[in-house]
Automatic annotation (TrEMBL):
Residues 298-349, 368-377 have a biased composition (Low complexity). Residues 350-367, 378-398 have a biased composition (Pro residues). It comes from Streptomyces justiciae. It holds the Pfam family PASTA. Residues 209-220 have a biased composition (Basic and acidic residues). InterPro entries: DUF6777, PASTA_dom. Residues 218-281 form the PASTA domain. Residues 26-49, 199-220, 245-266, 279-412 are annotated as: Disordered. This is PASTA domain-containing protein. SMART domains: PASTA.
Amino acid sequence: MKAVAAGVPSLAPFFDERSGLGEDAQDVKAQPVRGSLQQGDTPGLYGGSKQPTVCDVDKLKAFLTDPRNDQKAQAWARALGITTGEIPEYLDRLTPVLLRHDTLVKNHDYKKGKAVPYDSLLQAGIAILVDQQGQPAAKCSCGNPLRPFTGDTNRISVKFEDGNKEWKGYDRSSVVAVRPAARPLEKIALVDVDDPDRGINRPVGTGGAKDDTFDTRKTEAVPSLAGKTFGEARQVLADKGLATGYDTGSMPTDGARVTATDPPAGTELRFGQYVMLSVAEGSSPGGGSTTSPPPSTPGTSAPGTSAPGSSGSTSKSPSTGPSTSAPSGPSTSMSPSAPVTSSPPAVTSSPPPTTTSAPPPSPPPPETTSAPPVTTSAPPPVTTVAPPPESTGAPPPVSESAPTEPTASVAT
């Protein structure tokens, strides 16, 4: 994982960093994140500036359509999964922004006529072009194509080399990787990197000439999201200008059910602030509930156990989960093992010695053999000791009652 600092030229760029394609912003402080994976429409994910443009898309288009750069154009298009003929239209749909977070991407150098991919961490303040779903597509200053980072965001090792010294404020736990928004965007809501109280609505495919501004200090109330899916809740928050946060190691699935929010519903937040969502991953049938149904026999317990470990699920489970599981566990684990195995030997050994004697006191010794610890080694000893004392067999009813006595002791 190579670090790429703002303003530091690439060693093998597609185009000369001094050609005027774009310019990074300096001294942009990376903002903390509440979840290392964020979608491209997350409010406040990207920044802007009063500067008319941070990326000259027309100049990049001219370079890539110049016949003298045909080999570079082919490598550039191949890295982005398009053809050279689609380059002009593709560029027209891109939007220049500034990074507000240290961002993980798959970068590309240009070496020996090919685009060479490598994972990199772009510093906050770097100017990039994003596509219609908010994903990084190209680095403005050199034209290098960018693709999504596909590794584990929690397991990265960043190398600061080639002039890219570790920048002030770098925090490994506060990097972000971008996933595409659920739907194409019409505009991207940015935050002015020089004035955080100023927001910028930038229409997709424009460079700043059609920007509208808004006040990021205007607040919105956190909506009630309990019961919605994670995907639904995230979209509701984005529409209100609020960011979605989570504290799990990986992003929850879209189908995970929201159980609570922090701060709670009704709290007033300004643009781009995070709302932390608590979710139950097993909220859908067949999800997390697969681990709890075995102890609880009733099929109606599935809804209550579908959200293990979450505050939302515990309100349902106490009535069905604990009450059914407590008695069932001990009884099922004891009855099949000890008593059942010990009783057959006693029955088989009792018929032969029925003629020996008939003292009533003999039943107690066989009962002791039914104790759980002795049952494992009981079969051999029972057959040898039983003949003298097993006088209970004199009357046939006594031999028949032997099986019932162990079962009664097991019940207690």
